[in-house]
Design a protein that fits this description.
Order of helices and strands: HHHHH
Number of strands: 0
Helix content: over 70%
Shape: globular
Structural class: mainly alpha
Distance between the termini: 59 Å
Radius of gyration: 20 Å
């Protein structure tokens, strides 16, 4: 079961990257806000249908949970707007590694301090090494993007 869950999460990450690339392209054609609006409108409609048809009854509602738990919805909006704006400018790989870097850093802080009611998992050498390696990956991907853009932006010669 654990391997299936890891596979599904990796697949979800691949889907998120593809969505980001598609929304980045859409945003460069129709606008950042319009692209984000489409994503959230379709997401809201599908989520409503799923919840209406399949979600079991819960003791709590959105109106009775602690207010801080609702902030996660706002974070999705920030992510979508930033990624749609960034991908056409820095590329899909650099944007994705930057997002993963932010996720890793925040997840390590949440684990280390036990924020948001999570179990405390202290930082150790392996976790510091993971952060460093991801930072190196981000720098290398960004540098290769800027080098390739300079090479491709050279003068055009008609033959």
């Amino acid at each position: 079961m654990l391997l299936l869950m890891i596979f599904l999460v990796v697949l979800s990450g691949a889907t998120l990257c593809a969505q980001s690339a598609i929304n980045g392209r859409l945003g460069s054609h129709v606008g950042v806000l319009e692209s984000a609006w489409l994503t959230f409108t379709l997401g809201a409609m599908l989520s409503f249908l799923y919840a209406f048809l399949f979600e079991p009854h819960h003791a709590f509602t959105l109106f009775s949970v602690p207010r801080w738990q609702i902030t996660g919805a706002f974070f999705g909006v920030v992510y979508m707007l930033v990624i749609v704006f960034a991908i056409p400018r820095i590329g899909t790989a650099a944007a994705t590694v930057a997002v993963i870097s932010g996720q890793l850093l925040m997840s390590l802080l949440i684990d280390h301090f036990g924020w948001l009611g999570n179990t405390v998992i202290r930082l150790n050498g392996a976790r510091y090494a993971a952060m460093a390696l991801l930072a190196v990956a981000l720098v290398l991907i960004y540098r290769s993007n800027t080098r390739l853009r300079r090479e491709n932006a050279g003068p055009c010669v008609d033959m």
